[in-house]
């Protein structure tokens, strides 16, 4: 899994200013957002199409060159704010299909799509899902021909069972979900249980944490406001562990929509300090070059589960996960063992641990690369 951001984190700087927000002193361009992601040490970015100033071939080629120069994984995100409007807007369906070419032009193999939004969440869902499954089938035929997978976001519209229904009805390896960790909670669905159901189909993510806002109507879409990852109600650790267990290898893209009051005008700090640098969702793999305590917990939890695996001894109690970059075999009492490995070429703090079940919580430390 790679660490990144969705460009919507900077929506205020890109011209989408909510009523509770102040306009920025210095607006951003799309190029500036990409550069900022690189400055923060991101490994990828999800780019919202609504902020593209142009879809000319020349501009899209420039965006691709910039992303390539930074070695970024990328997701092309279509559909803000209402996407297909719950199956009410055929022109939006045609627009979605046109944007598949834009996704391909910037080198994205995953395109986030939106079926609906909070605007339609209280309308009957059955006719919506019936229409949307047909439209997505049509779009997937085009996308597959271009080597692009479509990932429908849970966009404060449908619960996990409804998203699963769409995926099963479209029935294509080129169709899955852009999992938003917070939006299931916003439709009264459990994010962890939803991730368990949908993990095999996750193609992209929005890593987001939220908390309720006192005094705001529970009927408002932003009754739950964004907070720094790990501060709110979303059990991001558990969600990322599920994704790791199901061998998800895509982008973990931090996202912010409406910040809680204490985070107003602090988006950059929220994204960098509490997200990319040291947020709880950041610590999922050894090689990203920052404090990696989440990787410690993820690998340790998988190690504990090996107690019931009859093949664990043969594997020296080492979990099957790419985050493990080196390990020693089981060493008998009185014996020693030496291993050699290359340290990551990015400075940071990399955890090591004993993976014998139950040992890792006390037997761990940090390898510091400077």
Largest sheet, spatial ordering of strands: 7-6-5-4-3-2-1-10
Average pLDDT, rounded to a whole number, is 89
- What is the H-and-E element order? EHEHEHEHEHEHHEEEHEHHEE
The geometry reads as globular
Structural class assignment: alpha/beta
**Low-confidence segments:** 278-294
Oligomer: single chain
Quote the distance from N terminus to C terminus.
23 Å
**Largest sheet descriptor:** 8 strands, parallel
The rounded Rg comes to: 21 Å
Number of strands: 12
Report the helical percentage: 25-40%
Discrete helix count: 10
Query: What is the percentage of strand-forming residues?
Result: 15-25%
What does this structure look like?
It is built from 10 helices and 12 strands. The strands form 3 sheets. An 8-stranded parallel beta sheet has the order 7-6-5-4-3-2-1-10. Strands 8-9 form a two-stranded antiparallel sheet. With 370 residues, the chain is an alpha/beta fold. The protein is globular and about 70 Å long. Helix content is 32%, strand content 16%. The longest helix has 22 residues, at 125-146. The protein has helices spanning 30-39, 57-69, 90-105, 125-146, 160-170, 183-186, 191-198, 236-245, 267-277, 293-305, and strands at 2-6, 44-48, 73-77, 110-113, 149-153, 175-180, 202-206, 209-212, 224-227, 251-254, 348-353, 364-369.
